[in-house]
Amino acid sequence: MPLSLYNTLTRKKEEFQPVHAPQVGVYLCGPTVYSEAHLGNARGPVVFDVLTRYLRYLGYQVRYVRNITDVGHLESDADTGEDKMEKAARAARVEPMQVAQHFANRYRQNMLALGCLPPDIEPQASGHITEQIGLIEEIVANGFGYEVNGSVYFDVPRYNEAHRYGKLSNRSIEDQLGGTRDTLAGQDEKRSPLDFALWKKAAPEHIMRWPSPWGEGFPGWHLECSAMSRKYLGDLSDIHGGGLDLMFPHHECEIAQCQASHTHTDESRVWMHNNMITVNGTKMSKSLGNFVLLGEMFKGPAGPLVQGYSPMVVRFFLLQAHYRSPVDVSDDALQAARKGYRKLMNGLRLLEKLVPTSDEAKLPGDADLRKLMADLFAGLEDDLNTARSIASLFNLLRKFNTLATTPAALAEVSGAVLAEAVAAYRTLVVDILGLQDEPRANAEQLLELTLSFYSEAKADKAYDKVDLIRAALKGQGIVIKDTKAGVEWAYSEE
Hints:
GO terms for molecular function: ATP binding; cysteine-tRNA ligase activity; zinc ion binding. The protein is an alpha/beta fold.
């Protein structure tokens, strides 16, 4: 079956048709790097990592872009408050770009730990000021932007006359106006409370500033993704996405900017939005204080969690639900995810034991095994339903366990079909879902345990065991030393 994806813009599943097949352009709105990433920040990257892996498995040539926001993201969506980067820098008494570099590095480390492949391009907003200024000039030239006192705003009511502002989030402009005051504090220079900043004049104390045709300032938050997506993926990309909280106003403003510029496109053919991570049914966010930082979560305990969970367990936890469904985080849910993840890893080890016993080209058990194989990818084809594909993996794994423990059942399956099933299981688990086996034992703890066995054997005068342990460790480059203080070890210098 062809791949279908739910398009937020049309509110229905659609067969995926790339703009310029076999090339596919994918853009994910990345983090604002003013602080450590929390679990909620990880869901989009994990989902889009699986999406790009699957598209490549299908034979597409994917260019995956995930941006870094390091300027222009103010505290309020109404274009008020401090720049989040500058506020963090002031608190730490460092330069804003030091904050950006530090947390961008930490974000990348966490994403790699979660098994996310690096994006093909990872542009930063501060490195694309020229492109953003150019986009503003196009919007102003087309009559959809205006300058006031060195700031430039997008004229939403005028744009709405020619297009429809709110079509992505399904909000009418009347409803939006009904939810605002006629004037907003500090926003009197806007013609409408719905207008949003394309360029903000920098106050004297503002550190991050660039020259522009309207004076020194900095770009609005919504502008960067429109400019960078167009630069790296063209006027119309294939897939653009992020968290559900970005649908409005961020993505809505992106579409308006592209429609108002010379491109006149919706920026992307397909808009995808992953749902939120919740804690006791409430959205996880730093403002509510109910967040779980990824770095702390991997070590534990963190936030409402009483213990830590490995990156692969966290990845499995995020993938065991459909990306458009909310996921509630708790120790019970993560412990269940750990059991499921370990079952799949044990399945990878089981594959080596599945050796066919018949040379027949076709046997009665082949049909059942082929059906289980087909089910593996049916979920991914249906709007990237990883939950369904994982359930199919467990169904196939149960079959593998039967084949491994029942010689008569194994004899009913041909070698060719068994090899296909083994390859399909490994491909889905490792190559597409990105789940890797990870060591659960600490090497130094295992060494200390081995030395305790060595000491016991020596005390019991079991010298054959003593020599065996010495030889085994020497083979690993470890030398045992018997000292007055006790048994010690050192790296072999040979």
